[in-house]
C-alpha cells in the first residue's frame, strides 16, 4: 500500500511540476508601416510546435510549455521578431517591420509554391518583395525587377510594352522555369515566355523569387538556368485597400485601385484589384494599352481546411518595332520603326500584339495533423490573341521609311475584282493576324509529413493537359473585297474567298475569332498531355542538413493540320516520351552566421513539342532526343544584422539540346529562322551578392557575376524563311563558340538612404561586359561593346488619418540613365566590324541598342 501511495505521490508531483512550468505570454502586435494592429500574425514557442495567432486587434495569448524561453513572432512579408519570456509575461506592443525575405509570404498553397525558404538546404536565390516592385517598376516590364541580381540579363526584343527577354546564367527563357504560385507557366509548345501576356503580374505580385541554377522546386521542370516564382496576392486577412495613379515618359498613364474586405469571424474574405495603363512607348510606333483584374475569395472552413479561389487576367494590345539593319538606325535614329504609318491621317501599325489570358485557380490547404499536411491547386488558363502583319504583296513606303497606307490602299483599288491573293503570286495587300489560342488545365498537389524531429518527406503529382490552336485570319482588307486562299492547301485545292475581318480587341478575342472556313495560310491544333510525380526527403539536425529530390514525367504529343493535309491524313503520329530529374545536396552551418552548401543534379528533359515535328508539319524529327543536363554548384553565405553576403560557383553542362534564333536580311527585310540541333553547351561561373546596413537609414547592396559560356563540338544547322520553309541543312563546327544573348560578366552597386523620416533616395548602377551576338551556335561570334545603366528614385511617405494609420506614397523614377552618344558610337563600331547585319545581334544589347532608353515616371499611391 505504501508503494502505491509513493507512486501516486510521484505522479502527482510530476504532473504538478509540469503544470507549474507552463507560463502565459501576452502582447499586441503592431504593423510598423501602418502604425496599426496586425491581425493573424503567428506566435510560436521556439523549439516547439506550440503556437497561437493574434486577433483582429493584434492581441495574442499563448500558454507556453516551458516556464522560460523564447517566442518567435512572424507575419507575411515582415521581419520575424524573437523575444524572451520568464514566467507569466506581458510583452507589450511588438512592432513588425517589412522585410525583403520570404519567411512567410504565402498564405495559400504554400505546399506547392516551392520557395527557397521552404527548404533548409540553401540554393542561389534572390527575392524582391511587393514594396520594391511597386516602388521601382515604373513603366517597365516585371522582368525589370530582377536586373540587379547576379547572372540575370534583361533585354529588349520588339521594342514595345511587354517585349523583353530574360536570361539566367546565359540560358534563354525556354530553359528557365517560370512559375505562378508554383504552377508552371512556360509555353507548353516551346517553353517560351511572352511577357505582354503577363503584364499584370507587377500589380498582383506579393513577391518575385529567382532561384539560380538547380533551385528548390520539386517539379520535373526545366530549371536549367534557374527558377523564377511569381507569388501573387491571395485574400488579405485584414480590411484595407489602395488607389494609385502614375504618369510617365511619352504619355504613359496608369491608374489602379484595390480593396480587401479582410477575413471576418466566419472565415470569409475577398480581395479585388483593377488597373488600366496606356502609353505611346519609347520607340516610335509602339503605342499600347491594357488592363489588369484580380479577384480572390478566401474561406477558412476550420482550423484544418482553407480554400482560396482567384481569377486574374491582363488583356492588352501593343504595337511593335521589329529588327532593322544598323544603317537604318544610324540614318533615322534609335527610335526608328518602319512598321507604322498614317491612313487618312490616322495612325495605324502593321505590327500589333494583342492577347488576353484569363487564369483561374483553386487552392486547398489541409492540415491533416500536427505532422502532416496536403496542399493542392487546380488551375486553368484560356489564351486568345496573336500578332498582326502584312499578307500578300509588300506595303508601300513613304520617303521617311514609314508604311504608306494611302498608297497601299490605292494599289488595292486597282486589283481586278478587288480580290487579292496571299498564297502567290501575291496580289493586293491585307493585314492578317497570326492567332495562338490555347486552353490549359492542370493540378499540382503536394503531401508533406514530418517523419521525425529531423526527417521530413514531400511527395506529390503534377498533371497538365494543353490544346493549342494556331491559324491566321484577316484583320483589315485595306480596300479589297476579299482574299483568295487555298491554292497551296491540300485540304482546299479549289481555293476559296475570305471576305470577313476580325477584331484585335483583346477582350473580344476571347470568344470571337475566325471560323475554320475563314482561316488563311495555316490552321492546326496541338495536344500535349503531361503527368509527373515528385518526391523529396530532407534531413536536418543541429548544423547539418541534406536533401534528395526526384521527379519523373511522361508527355504525349499529337497535332492536327487542317491545311497542309487531306482530311484523312490531318492527324499526326502520337509521340510519347519520358523524362526525369534527380537532385541532392547538403549544407553545414559554421557558427550562427556562416553556412556552406553543395548541390548537384541531373536532368533528362524531353524536347519541346515544336522540336518534335519538323518544319511545323506532321513529320516527326528523327534527330530529337532527350536533352541531358548536369548541374553542380557550391556556395557560402554569411548573415548578420549589419552585413550579409553570398558566393556561388556553378558548372552546367547541356547536351543534345535544340536551339533556334532569327535574323532579318538587311536588303529585303525578310525574316529567317536558324535551328541548331544536337548542340552541347558548357556554362561555368561565379556569383556574388552582398548587403551592408552600417546605420538604420542606409542600405548598400551589390552583386557581381563572372561567367564562361561556350558551345562544345558540332551542330546541325537548319535555315528556314518566314513561311517556315526549309532553305538549307548543314553540319557546323561550333566548338569554343561564345554563347550570345546575355552578358557573361556583370556587376552592380546600389544604395537606399533615408534622408529624413519617410523620405528616401535610391540608386542602382549595373555594368555589362562579354556580351556576344545572339545568333545561336556558331564558332566565331561577334563581341558587342560593354555598357552600363543606372536607375534612380525618390520616395516620400506621408501618414494621414486621425490615427495616422493611412498613408500617401509619392515615388519618382528615372530609368536607364546613360550617355545618349553611346548608342551611335557603339552602332558605328559594330557596323565597322560586322557590316550592315542585323542578325549579328545588336538588338540584344538591352536598352542601349534597341529597347527602352532613358524614361521617367511619377506615381502617387494612397493606402488605407
Task: Describe this structure as you would to a colleague.
- By secondary structure, the protein is mainly beta.
- The chain is 8% helix and 53% strand.
- It is built from 9 helices and 48 strands.
- The strands form 8 sheets. The chain has a 26-stranded antiparallel sheet that branches. A 5-stranded mixed sheet has the order 9-14-15-12-13. Strands 1, 2, 5 and 8 form a 4-stranded mixed sheet that branches.
- The N and C termini lie far apart (70 Å).
DSSP strand tally:
48
Distance between the termini: 70 Å
Mean pLDDT across all residues, rounded?
Answer: 84
- Helix content range: under 10%
Shape from CA axes? globular
Instruction: Tell me the major beta sheet.
Output: 26 strands, antiparallel
Keyword list:
five-stranded mixed β-sheet, mainly beta, 9 helices, globular, 864 residues
Short description:
With 864 residues, this protein is mainly β. The protein is built from nine helices and 48 strands.
SSE layout and pairing:
Layout (H helix, E strand, L loop, with lengths): L1 H20 L1 E9 L4 E2 L4 E4 L5 E3 L5 E6 L3 E7 L6 E6 L2 E8 L13 H4 L10 E6 H7 L15 E5 L7 E5 L8 E4 L2 E2 L16 H4 E8 L13 E7 L7 E9 L3 E9 L7 E12 L8 E13 L4 E9 L2 E4 L6 H7 L7 E4 L2 E4 L2 E5 L2 E9 L4 E21 L12 H8 L6 E3 L7 E22 L4 E22 L5 E4 L10 E3 L21 E22 L2 E18 L13 E16 L3 E12 L3 H4 L14 E13 L3 E22 L6 E25 L2 E15 L1 E8 L4 E8 L11 E12 L2 E11 L1 E2 L10 E2 L2 E14 L5 E12 L3 H14 L11 H4 L5 E9 L1
Parallel strand pairs: 1-8, 12-15, 27-30
Antiparallel strand pairs: 1-2, 1-5, 3-4, 3-6, 6-7, 9-14, 10-11, 12-13, 14-15, 16-17, 16-48, 17-18, 18-19, 19-20, 19-21, 20-25, 21-24, 22-23, 24-26, 25-26, 26-28, 28-29, 29-32, 30-31, 32-33, 33-34, 34-35, 35-36, 36-37, 37-38, 38-39, 38-40, 39-42, 40-41, 42-43, 43-46, 44-45, 46-47, 47-48
Amino acid at each position: 500500500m505504501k508503494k502505491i501511495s509513493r507512486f501516486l505521490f510521484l505522479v502527482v508531483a510530476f504532473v504538478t511540476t509540469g503544470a507549474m512550468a507552463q507560463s502565459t505570454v501576452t502582447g499586441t502586435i503592431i504593423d510598423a508601416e501602418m502604425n496599426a494592429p496586425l491581425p493573424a500574425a503567428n506566435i510560436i514557442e521556439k523549439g516547439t510546435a506550440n503556437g497561437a495567432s493574434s486577433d483582429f486587434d493584434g492581441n495574442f495569448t499563448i500558454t507556453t510549455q516551458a516556464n522560460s524561453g523564447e517566442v518567435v513572432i512572424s507575419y507575411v512579408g515582415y521581419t520575424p521578431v524573437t523575444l524572451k519570456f520568464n514566467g507569466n509575461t506581458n510583452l507589450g506592443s511588438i512592432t513588425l517591420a517589412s522585410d525583403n525575405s520570404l519567411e512567410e509570404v504565402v498564405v495559400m498553397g504554400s505546399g506547392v509554391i516551392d520557395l527557397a525558404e521552404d527548404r533548409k538546404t540553401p540554393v542561389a536565390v534572390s527575392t524582391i518583395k511587393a514594396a520594391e516592385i511597386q516602388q521601382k517598376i515604373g513603366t517597365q516590364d516585371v522582368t525589370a525587377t530582377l536586373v540587379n541580381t547576379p547572372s540575370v540579363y534583361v533585354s529588349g526584343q520588339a521594342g514595345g510594352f511587354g517585349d523583353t527577354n530574360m536570361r539566367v546564367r546565359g540560358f534563354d527563357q525556354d530553359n528557365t522555369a517560370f512559375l505562378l504560385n508554383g504552377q508552371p507557366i512556360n509555353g507548353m509548345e516551346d517553353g517560351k515566355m511572352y511577357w505582354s501576356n503577363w503584364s499584370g503580374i507587377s500589380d498582383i505580385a506579393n513577391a518575385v523569387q529567382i532561384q539560380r541554377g538547380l533551385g528548390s522546386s520539386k517539379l520535373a521542370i526545366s530549371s536549367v538556368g534557374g527558377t523564377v516564382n511569381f507569388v501573387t496576392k491571395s485574400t488579405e486577412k485584414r480590411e484595407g485597400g489602395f488607389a494609385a495613379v502614375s504618369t510617365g515618359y511619352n504619355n504613359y498613364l496608369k491608374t489602379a485601385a484595390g480593396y480587401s474586405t479582410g477575413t471576418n469571424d466566419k472565415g470569409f474574405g475577398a480581395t479585388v484589384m483593377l488597373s488600366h495603363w496606356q502609353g505611346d512607348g519609347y520607340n516610335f510606333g509602339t503605342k499600347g494599352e491594357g488592363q489588369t483584374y484580380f479577384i480572390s475569395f478566401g474561406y477558412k472552413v476550420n482550423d484544418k481546411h482553407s480554400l482560396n479561389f482567384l481569377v486574374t487576367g491582363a488583356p492588352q494590345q501593343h504595337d511593335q518595332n521589329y529588327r532593322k539593319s544598323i544603317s537604318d538606325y544610324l540614318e533615322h535614329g534609335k527610335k526608328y520603326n518602319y512598321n507604322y504609318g498614317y491612313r487618312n491621317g490616322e495612325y495605324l501599325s502593321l505590327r500589333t500584339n494583342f492577347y488576353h489570358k484569363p487564369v483561374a485557380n483553386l487552392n486547398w490547404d489541409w492540415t491533416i495533423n500536427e505532422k502532416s499536411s496536403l496542399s493542392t491547386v487546380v488551375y486553368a488558363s484560356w489564351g486568345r490573341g496573336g500578332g498582326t502583319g502584312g499578307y500578300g504583296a509588300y506595303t508601300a513606303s513613304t520617303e521617311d521609311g514609314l508604311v504608306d497606307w494611302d498608297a497601299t490602299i490605292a494599289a488595292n483599288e486597282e486589283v481586278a475584282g478587288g480580290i487579292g491573293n496571299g498564297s502567290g503570286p501575291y496580289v493586293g495587300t491585307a493585314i492578317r493576324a497570326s492567332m495562338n489560342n490555347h486552353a490549359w488545365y492542370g493540378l499540382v498537389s503536394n503531401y508533406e509529413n514530418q517523419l521525425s524531429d529531423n526527417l521530413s518527406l514531400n511527395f506529390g503529382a503534377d498533371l497538365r493537359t494543353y490544346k493549342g490552336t494556331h491559324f491566321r485570319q484577316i484583320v483589315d482588307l485595306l480596300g479589297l473585297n476579299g482574299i483568295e486562299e487555298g491554292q497551296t492547301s491540300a485540304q482546299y485545292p479549289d481555293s476559296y474567298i475570305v471576305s470577313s475581318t476580325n477584331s484585335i480587341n483583346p477582350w473580344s478575342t476571347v470568344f470571337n475569332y475566325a471560323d475554320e472556313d475563314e482561316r488563311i495560310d495555316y490552321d492546326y491544333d496541338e495536344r500535349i498531355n503531361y503527368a509527373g510525380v515528385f518526391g523529396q526527403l530532407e534531413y536536418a539536425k543541429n548544423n547539418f542538413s541534406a536533401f534528395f529530390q526526384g521527379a519523373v514525367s511522361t508527355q504525349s504529343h499529337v497535332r492536327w493540320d487542317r491545311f497542309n493535309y487531306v482530311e484523312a491524313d490531318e492527324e499526326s503520329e502520337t509521340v510519347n516520351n519520358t523524362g526525369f530529374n534527380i537532385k541532392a545536396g547538403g549544407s553545414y552551418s559554421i557558427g550562427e552566421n556562416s553556412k556552406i552548401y553543395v548541390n548537384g543534379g541531373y536532368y533528362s528533359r524531353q524536347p519541346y513539342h515544336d522540336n518534335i515535328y519538323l518544319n511545323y508539319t506532321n513529320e516527326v524529327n528523327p534527330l530529337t532526343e532527350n536533352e541531358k543536363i548536369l548541374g553542380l554548384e557550391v556556395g557560402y553565405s554569411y548573415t548578420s544584422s549589419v552585413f550579409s553576403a553570398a558566393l556561388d560557383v556553378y558548372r552546367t553542362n547541356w547536351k543534345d539540346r535544340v536551339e533556334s534564333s532569327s535574323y532579318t536580311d538587311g536588303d529585303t527585310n525578310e525574316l529567317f529562322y536558324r535551328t541548331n540541333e544536337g548542340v552541347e553547351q558548357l556554362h561555368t561561373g561565379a556569383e556574388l551578392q552582398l548587403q551592408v546596413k552600417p546605420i538604420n537609414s542606409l542600405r548598400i547592396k551589390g552583386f557581381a557575376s563572372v561567367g564562361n559560356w561556350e558551345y562544345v563540338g558540332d551542330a546541325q544547322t537548319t535555315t528556314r524563311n518566314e513561311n517556315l520553309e526549309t532553305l538549307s541543312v548543314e553540319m557546323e563546327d561550333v566548338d569554343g563558340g561564345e554563347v550570345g544573348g546575355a552578358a557573361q560578366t556583370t556587376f552592380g552597386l546600389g544604395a537606399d538612404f533615408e534622408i529624413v523620416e519617410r523620405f528616401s533616395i535610391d540608386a542602382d548602377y549595373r555594368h555589362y561586359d562579354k556580351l556576344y551576338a545572339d545568333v545561336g551556335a556558331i564558332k566565331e561570334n561577334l563581341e558587342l561593346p560593354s555598357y552600363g545603366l543606372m536607375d534612380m528614385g525618390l520616395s516620400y511617405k506621408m501618414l494621414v488619418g486621425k490615427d495616422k494609420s493611412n498613408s500617401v506614397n509619392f515615388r519618382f523614377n528615372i530609368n536607364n540613365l546613360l550617355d545618349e552618344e553611346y548608342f551611335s558610337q557603339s552602332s558605328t563600331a559594330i557596323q565597322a566590324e560586322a557590316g550592315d547585319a542585323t542578325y549579328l545581334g545588336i538588338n540584344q544589347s538591352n536598352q542601349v541598342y534597341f529597347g527602352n532608353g532613358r524614361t521617367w515616371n511619377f506615381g502617387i499611391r494612397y493606402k488605407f
